[in-house]
Design a protein that fits this description.
By secondary structure, this protein is an alpha/beta fold. Helices cover 33% and strands 12% of the residues. The strands form 2 sheets. A 6-stranded parallel sheet has the order 3-4-5-6-7-8. α2 (40-60) runs parallel beside α13, α7 (175-195) packs parallel to α9 (223-233) and α12 packs across α13 (352-372).
Length: 393
């Protein structure tokens, strides 16, 4: 159900994370969110950081905003994105460092490579009992942001398979059963979130496109099963909220996982079958190489393309953004096109200023194309000449 993008032509957004303010020094750690919000200094820093994230997106002119993934800790390569959920769901316990053959979600880089640090800092709990929601508290986290803005706040969560693939299963001892148990628990959590009024829920990184790229396709893990998992996780949500499926090619420490950008083409038939209203694609980093097949195959959903690259500190110009949008419009109707970032811009990726001006470029580039269609441009306070502190001669 289109709740956030209904009636919007060429709406703009970002995927999720943003760089932390330098003064945001508190970490949530293993605490429950509501428990941490009792601590005065944490509450003040958290609320101020969310406010800063939202205000940056508002002054850039984005239509749909996020809380910047403010709940995640300042850790190596965004590890908390993986560990937040299993650290709080029932059925998980302990803390086990990554081992070379201990999971499917690792990245086998050798010492001397920045991504080897990802392995050294990958400490996850074990799966030791029946999985249940536990204390994810997604609704409270979303409310903490939504009450600070009138724009819709998109809430994102990791997918069940990535949790199951990153832990040691001592209970189900069956990867598929573990994944489906986590899926059922997340579905219950997301229904509470939707019932509270969240108008956009985003499932992040279903492994539909990544399994083939990683060479992990087998009878146990394959695109058909990943579609089943996604659809089970969002079961019943379409009557309540707008469901997004985010896909990209990885973002640990803002590093590329593949020497050259992989193609989405092998995964498009499966992605067309996910029960999502919107699918996001990483397209800026590849120069939009898959836009034609994406537009040809994904015809019953809206498509959000990345028009700024989360790996690069080079801020795309509005003209570059507009060029990529025009290229997409050759294959995707403007009524079904959404503009965003390739992936999140936090997790050690860049400074706040770099991320801010990438958001500004998303809006200014989209405004160029909007004007070409005779559509109203979005207000972008960041680009208002009258507010520049540089004096004219």
């Amino acid at each position: 159900m289109y709740t956030a993008t209904q009636g919007l032509v060429l709406p703009t957004t970002i995927i999720g994370s943003l760089p932390r303010p330098g003064w945001y020094t508190h970490n949530l750690g293993a605490r429950d969110f509501r428990e941490a919000m009792v601590e005065r200094s944490y509450r003040e820093q958290y609320q101020d950081a969310v406010s800063a994230y939202l205000r940056d997106q508002e002054t850039a002119g984005l239509d749909i905003v996020t809380d910047g993934d403010c709940r995640f800790d300042a850790d190596v390569a965004g590890h908390h994105w993986f560990s937040y959920a299993p650290m709080r769901m029932k059925g998980f316990a302990g803390a086990r460092p990554y081992r070379v053959q201990g999971g499917l979600a690792g990245i086998p880089h050798k010492p001397g490579h920045i991504l080897h640090d990802v392995l050294e800092t990958r400490v996850m709990p074990d799966l030791v009992g029946p999985v249940a929601r536990g204390n994810l508290q997604y609704t409270a986290i979303w409310k903490a942001a939504q009450r600070l803005t009138t724009k819709p706040v998109k809430f994102g969560t990791i997918t069940p398979e990535l949790i199951a693939m990153a832990v040691r299963d001592l209970h189900y001892k069956d990867l598929r059963k573990a994944i489906m148990a986590i899926s059922d628990a997340l579905n219950e959590e997301l229904h509470e979130l939707a019932d509270a009024g969240c108008s956009v829920i985003q499932l992040e990184e279903p492994q539909i496109h990544l399994l083939a790229a990683k060479g992990l396709v087998d009878k146990e893990l394959n695109a058909e099963f990943m579609v089943e998992v996604f659809n089970n996780t969002v079961r019943g949500l379409h009557a309540k909220t707008e469901v997004w499926c985010h896909t990209c090619w990885g973002n640990p420490a803002a590093q590329r996982l593949f020497a050259t950008p992989p193609s989405y083409v092998p995964a498009l038939d499966a992605l067309a079958r996910v029960n999502a209203d919107v699918i996001t694609f990483e397209t800026c980093s590849s120069g939009g190489m898959d836009l034609e097949p994406i537009g040809r195959r994904i015809q019953e959903k809206k498509i959000c393309i990345g028009v700024v690259d989360h790996h690069s500190l080079q801020v795309e110009t509005p003209e570059q953004v507009a060029t990529l949008i025009r290229k997409a419009l050759l294959h995707i109707p403007r009524e079904r096109l959404i503009l965003g970032s390739d992936c999140g811009m936090g997790r050690e990726g860049m400074s706040r200023r770099h991320a801010y001006y990438k958001m500004v470029s998303i809006v200014l580039g989209t405004n160029i194309v909007r004007r070409e269609f005779g559509l109203p441009a979005a207000a972008c306070l960041a680009a208002e000449e009258r507010f520049s502190m540089v004096q004219r001669a």
